[in-house]
Design brief:
Layout lengths: L1 H10 L7 E7 L4 E5 L12 H11 L5 E8 L11 E3 L3 H10 L4 E4 L6 E4 H4 L17
Parallel strand pairs: 3-5
Antiparallel strand pairs: 1-2, 1-3, 3-4, 5-6
Pfam families: dCMP_cyt_deam_1
Protein name: CMP/dCMP-type deaminase domain-containing protein
GO biological process, one term: pyrimidine-containing compound metabolic process
Length: 136
Amino acid sequence: MEHTRGVIRGRYAENRHQIAASLLAADGRVFSGIHLEAMVGRASVCAEAVALGKAREAGATDLRYVLSVRHPKPSEAAREIKLVPPCGLCRELLLDYGQDLQVVLGGEDELRSESLSQMLPHKYVGTKWAAVDQSR
């Protein structure tokens, strides 16, 4: 978690970069990304999607854990970087590439993991590619 906190600490910009995410592959590699806010909200890209793109570019197909953190805005009373679950859109996207992915949740003293598929029990299943083919 400290790695991901360090990513957002170093890159935080109010109203531009508030979330950082990291994906851990089975071989131990870690892929991180930051949220890219856009002037047109729909064009924004979540940190989890950036991290996933880096992982796929590097050839990582066996993704095990995702961890996301949120940096507080200066106007907020809370000052600590906290764990947050991936948004619904990212849950859908991540499950397309890691059916056994675990999400790291909890607080500083009580970290736990939960199956991403349990967090999104009714995932959309389309016909673009076979549901089991995650190697491409």
